[in-house]
Structures are given as C-alpha cells and as structure tokens.
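Response to reviewer comment R2.3. The reviewers asked that we include at least one raw input/output pair. We reproduce the pair for Phenylacetate-CoA oxygenase subunit PaaC here without editing.
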Amino acid sequence: MSDDHVYLSLAEGHEDDTRWAYGTGFEDPLHGVDTTVPEGVDAASLAADCVALADDALVSAQRLAEWTTRAPELEEEVALANIGLDLLGQARLLYARAGQVDGTGRGEDAYAYFRGADDFRNVRLAELPGGDFAFSVVRLLVLSSWRLAHFEELSSHPDPVLAAVAAKGVKELTYHRQYAAEWVVRLGDGTDESHRRTRRAMERIAPYFGELFTAYDVRDEVVAVLRQVTEAAGLPMPVYRPLPGTGRAGEHTEHLAPLLAELQSVARAHPGATW
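Raw output as returned:
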C-alpha cells in the first residue's frame, strides 16, 4: 500500500481537512457552550481527566517544539510546529476546564508552569526524548492514533465543554495521524538506513504501549491503525513488552523533570509577569 493510500484510508470518515493550528482558527469551540457541570457528572473525576489529557498534550507539544530549527526540511519544521500548537491549544482549554470544576479556580498557567513532575499525569511515552526524526514521527503516529480514538468517544461526553473540546480536537488529530503515517511509510519503505531507524523507533516505543491501553480502552482502534501503517511501510508490528507503572499515577521517567524545568523556567523566574 502506498503512503497516499494510507493517507486516504486514514482520512476516511474525516472529510473536513482542517490543518489550522488550534490557536489560529476563527471559531471558538466553546462559543455558546454551557459551562455548568451536568447533573450526574463527578466534578473531581472530570477535572482529573481534563488535567491528564492536558498534560499529555502539553508535554507532547514541548517535545515537538524541540524540532524547531532542527527538522529535516523547513516544511516539516512548520508542520511539526503547527501540530504542537494544536496540542498546546487543546491543553489550554482542558486546563481551563479543570480549573472551573475542581473548585480551585486555577488558570491554565498554574497547571502548566507551577506544578512539579510528580504532579503531572501524562503518559510516559510523551516525555521520552526524541533526537531522531524517525522516533518522533513513530511516537506521533502512536499518540495521535490513541488520542484520536479517545477524543472520538469523548465528543459525546455528558460534559458539554469536554465534548466540545474533543470534537474540535478530532479534526486536528486526524491530520496529526495522517501526517505521521505518511512519514512512517516513507521512512520504513525508504532506504536501508531509514528503515533501520524506523524499526528501532518501533522497538523503543513498544514497552510504553501497555500504559496507553490501560488508560483508555481503545486498543483495537490503535492496533488496527498501526497494523495498516506497518504493513505499508514493510515494518513488523511491535512486540508489546509492558513496563510497570504509569504516568497517570505520577510515575515518570527521569526525562520529565528536565523537560519541565525548561518549559517552566521563565514563568517561575518572573511569576505574575505580563507582556
């Protein structure tokens, strides 16, 4: 299967080819949405879910930002930056919702900049250092496939705010997944060196799959996408060797703390500062 066929197949059912960064669109996804927590929805659980999803997005966006000035081509640098902005926009809305419903009234900056690594609830795959383009696009394929499947479910969540954020995110994540799939096929079916690096990236990521499937029951959807892409790329499906622990419980790798230190340095050095 060519990468064009993979692209078209994965785009099926998502005809709206939205590629704008989250913060640059002209429609407010929450315009007219009732922010009252619906009866029967546990506010504490809702806030925790929003924070976890926001942490995934924020940490992923920070890793993607590391490709600025380092991507193989200028076009890919712009694409990765825009994907990062999409995720950053999702994080902002989810943090804002958490602050509305958890009783603290905290703003998005408080969640992003003034919590330590132990308080973050992102999955560990998001925090692993990249360094290799093949690893970054394979990780993007896995995380975007996983997040897209979950956001499709959340688009009918009883909380109208979370449902609206998820519905908007589905359009963006569809493109993220397509972009990553194209690159995985191109690299896997490319030179011997690009194939070797992509295969190694799959092997490096495989131990972290179990944590994703534990967090949300979307294993079948994600595995179907990975099987389709790996077959087109001439790559073997990764063998799952789950690691103990989970970032959802604050159990992280040694890579998260330095990543957050860089992310939070300016805000902590100048708390309360404005432009």
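The CA atoms of residues 47 and 182 lie 35 Å apart. Residues 160-188 form the longest helix (29 residues). Further pairs are available on request from the corresponding author.
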